[in-house]
Amino acid sequence: MQKAILCLLLATVYTAMSVPLASEYSEDRVYPRYIQFPDGEGVMHTVDLEAEPDMELLDQIQRDPANNRYLLYTRRNRRISQTLTINNANSVTNSNFNANVPTVVIAHGWLSNQYTDINPTIRDAYLGKSDVNVIVLDWRRLALSDYATAARGVPAVGRGLGQFLAFINRVTGQAYSQMHLVGFSLGAHLVGNAGRELGGRVARVTALDPAGPLWNYSSNRVRPSDGVYVEAIHTDGGYTVGGLGIGSNVADADFYPNGGISQPGCLTNLCNHNRAWEFFAATVTYNHMVGRRCTTSTQITWNTCRGAELRMGNDDLRKTGTGMYRLDTGRRYPY
Questions:
Q1: Euclidean distance between CA atoms 86 and 164, whole angstroms
Q2: Which candidate, 37, 332, 277, places its Cα nearest to that of 136?
Q3: Which of 3, 15, 76, 136 is the most buried (most CB within 10 A)?
Q4: What CATH number did the domain enclosing 142 receive?
Q5: Is residue 18 part of a domain?
Q6: What is the mean pLDDT of residues 64-74?
Q7: Does residue 228 form part of some domain?
Q8: Which of 291, 300, 254 is nearest to 23 (CA)?
Q9: Alpha carbon distance 305, 310 (integer Å)
């Protein structure tokens, strides 16, 4: 009798382990009406995903999607920005913008601004590595609205960024092949729309834990055609309702560090979510994180990926790759 019970238990465990865990990365995840979502300072806010958006603000944003701040940092002005203004050629020609070096654009997430940690962290990583133009997009006018409104207005702000980069191209002659767009959370979908505005001609789009709530089925979310090479780093996806990231493939290459759900050294979804831009900044400096290609979500979960290697993140404008990848990291910088 005891042997029979033991066999039954073993069979049950085996069956459970054999069931594909694709649902952990599924677009079918349903969010409750009210969720907790962090601002740029790490403060959690209750979000009503069914709230009526501010249509007056959205109308203003869509009529003038370029109404954002574009703040330039270079090795000649590492700490004090210069403001570039669309359709004002003098603001560019009189600045330190150098068309002969790459341009990196950083887009923050919800309830954030130019001072949020993601911006100086990635800026300093780039300027410490090489001579580049770093442009911080401050889209606080929309980002400081309620989440439902901000999410709905992201495509228009993305189009505005695309129009701004087209203006940079006309004024300076810098090729789109020299541009890399990096966005976090809502900002990840924003830079995807910017790349789309430019016909997918920018060299790279990097989506750092793209926001999940209201985006699972949205045609405006970041997608592979938004750039010559599009990469996503997923750090807080998964099946739990607390996951802040989209948790499903959206790019040419989708990386799932540590499985893409829970990160070493983190006890909260906020920490997991922020790891995406922290990992990326570290890879710009060290280029040390290498993923193995996976064929199924189950392989990602059980860390059994044995495919080709591809480095996650970094500043390589000629990078290529497709598929989904798993890698493991440490608990502390540089991870």
A1: 6
A2: 277
A3: 136
A4: 3.40.50.1820
A5: no
A6: 89
A7: yes
A8: 300
A9: 12
* Structure tokens given for 73: 């940092």
Q: How far apart are CA 67 and CA 86, in angstroms?
A: 9
Is the CB of residue 135 less than 8 Å from the CB of residue 105?
A: yes
> Which tokens hold the place of 109?
């997430």
The model's pTM: 0.90
93's enclosing H/E stretch is helix 89-93
What is the token pair recorded at 128?
Answer: 């410490």
Name the residue type at position 255.
F
**Structure tokens given for 141:** 């006018």
Domain span at 153: 28-327
Q: Taking the CB of residue 330, how many other CB atoms lie within 10 A of it?
A: 11
**Residue that is written with structure tokens 């989904």 in the block:** 324
Q: Please give the angle made by the CA atoms of 272, 274 and 279, to the nearest 5 degrees.
A: 95
Strands (E), 234-289: 253-257
Q: Phi and psi for 190 in degrees, rounded to 5? A: -60, -50
Contact indicator for 259, 253 with CB cutoff of 8 Å: no
Which of 2-11, 138-147, 181-190, 322-331 has the weakest average pLDDT? Answer: 2-11
189 pLDDT band (50/70/90 cuts)?
A: very high
Instruction: Establish if 13 belongs to a structural domain.
Output: no
Backbone angles phi, psi at 77, to 5 degrees: -145, 75
The whole-angstrom separation of Cα 225 and Cα 228 is: 7
Residue 95 included in any domain: yes
Kindly report whether the peptide bond that precedes residue 334 is cis, defined as omega within 30 degrees of 0. Answer: yes
CA angle, 54 then 57 then 59, to 5°:
105
Here the tokens at position 225 are 């055609």
> For residue 122, which phi and psi values (nearest 5 degrees)?
-70, -40
